[in-house]
């Protein structure tokens, strides 16, 4: 569900006018819709129907405490990638038995923290890590719940930075090696082998890629049971469900690039054969479409053949365009009725790579006008930084016609 729409030529999030948000909270500000968050989560959750499953929200996409609390209240699980995220998930109310933790580089301290908290699974990404987990659990006189992240060598044919499931990537254990790892793990007194995991990448738009990796996981689980007598509790197919960054208004319909129902209906019959519970770890598809970065035009200027709109948000607030060449639609909050012009929308940062959009058609905007960078709910604030010693933006949660400041702006001067 996408919560943004024009009403009387003003851009709204649900029933709240973005101009009012800018006046009340300043800019740049991330604006999220509660309704969109809850509906998108519920659509994904319901798609899996009665089949035993957990939807573990990927905190790396958005880790605002209020957002996490809302998801935890809905019964979501959490996918974390560091001790810091694990601490945030626990604080927000996710029960430990619904938290999975993947990372190629967990420190001893992080592993100890996860074991101490009895999380559902440490998604272990190398045989060496497996040995370390066993040693740490032994020193704590505990049993660590472990799931093995395999690398299924399935290419989602996406951006190389967010493709994770091929043998060229650092993630997971190669299939050939995974069986002996599992066999070893199943014999360790301080390891409780509970599952198998993979995550092939982000922004996936091909159902086939999910089917292929699910087939690989299922074959592996069946073989493991038959040949080694090892049974697992769950199969975790990772996250990655794509959204369409060109669909930004309510009238554009659903934002997902794969219908969650199709995904569930394709994967469940495969997994059913194993009797395992199904885990899915979406991030972007839950929170991405319901967020926008609200920014104000500082200046406009022209060079030879180029027009620039300089706004108060930059790559330190939203790095996706600079880092991945990612497209975010940019809309005027109050569209002026004049000729459209082509311009680059750029930030204040001292880098030529600091842009939010290039060669965009926009009305002739002026100093003081507001723009909304759309579909910015995921991997927006979590990748924000203090480059150029700029404070991070505020975050605001809209619920109908109410707006709540869910993170204060970071003030530098
Ligand atoms: N599970 C694991 C193990 C992951 O590594 C990720 C994302 C997810 C789940 C969630 O994937 P999602 O459903 O959000 O696609 N910064 C990039 C995206 C990096 C994704 C990293 N891993 C971007 O802005 O496009």
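^ structure tokens above, recovered residues below v
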């Amino acid at each position: 569900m996408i919560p943004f729409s024009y009403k009387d030529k003003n851009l709204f999030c649900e029933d709240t006018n973005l101009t009012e948000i800018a006046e009340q909270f300043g800019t740049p500000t991330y604006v999220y819709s509660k309704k969109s968050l809850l509906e998108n989560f519920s659509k994904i959750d319901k798609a899996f129907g009665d089949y035993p499953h957990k939807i573990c929200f990927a905190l790396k996409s958005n880790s605002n405490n209020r957002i996490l609390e809302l998801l935890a209240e809905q019964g979501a699980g959490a996918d974390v990638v560091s001790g810091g995220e694990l601490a945030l998930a626990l604080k927000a109310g996710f029960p430990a038995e619904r938290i999975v933790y993947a990372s190629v580089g967990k420190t001893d301290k992080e592993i100890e923290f996860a074991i101490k908290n009895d999380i559902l699974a440490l998604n272990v990404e190398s045989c060496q890590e497996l040995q370390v987990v066993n040693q740490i659990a032994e020193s704590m006189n505990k049993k660590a719940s472990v799931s093995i992240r395999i690398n299924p060598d399935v290419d989602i044919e996406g951006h190389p930075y967010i493709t994770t499931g091929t043998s060229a990537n650092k993630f997971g254990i190669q299939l050939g090696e995974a069986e002996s790892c599992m066999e070893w793990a199943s014999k360790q007194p301080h390891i409780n082998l509970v599952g198998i995991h993979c995550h092939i990448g982000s922004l996936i738009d091909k159902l086939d890629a999910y089917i292929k990796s699910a087939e690989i996981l299922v074959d592996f689980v069946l073989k493991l049971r038959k040949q080694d007598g090892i049974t697992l509790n769950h199969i975790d197919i990772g996250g990655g469900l794509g959204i369409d960054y060109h669909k930004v208004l309510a009238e554009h319909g659903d934002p997902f690039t794969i219908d969650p129902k199709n995904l569930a209906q394709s994967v469940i019959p495969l997994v059913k054969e194993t009797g395992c519970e199904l885990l899915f770890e979406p991030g972007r598809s839950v929170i991405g479409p319901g967020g926008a970065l609200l920014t104000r035009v500082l200046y406009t200027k022209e060079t030879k053949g180029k027009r620039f709109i300089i706004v108060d948000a930059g790559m330190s607030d939203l790095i996706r365009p600079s880092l991945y060449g990612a497209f975010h639609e940019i809309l005027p909050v109050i569209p002026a009725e004049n000729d459209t012009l082509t311009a680059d929308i750029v930030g204040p940062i001292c880098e030529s790579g600091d842009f939010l959009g290039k060669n965009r058609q926009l009305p002739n905007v002026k100093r003081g006008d507001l723009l909304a960078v759309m579909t910015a709910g995921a991997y927006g604030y979590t990748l924000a930084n203090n480059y150029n010693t700029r404070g991070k933006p505020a975050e605001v949660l809209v619920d109908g016609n109410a707006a709540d400041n869910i993170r204060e702006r970071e003030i530098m001067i």
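Residues 58, 60-61, 79, 102, 162, 199, 202-203, 238-241, 281-285, 320, 324, 378-379 surround LLP (CB under 6 Å).
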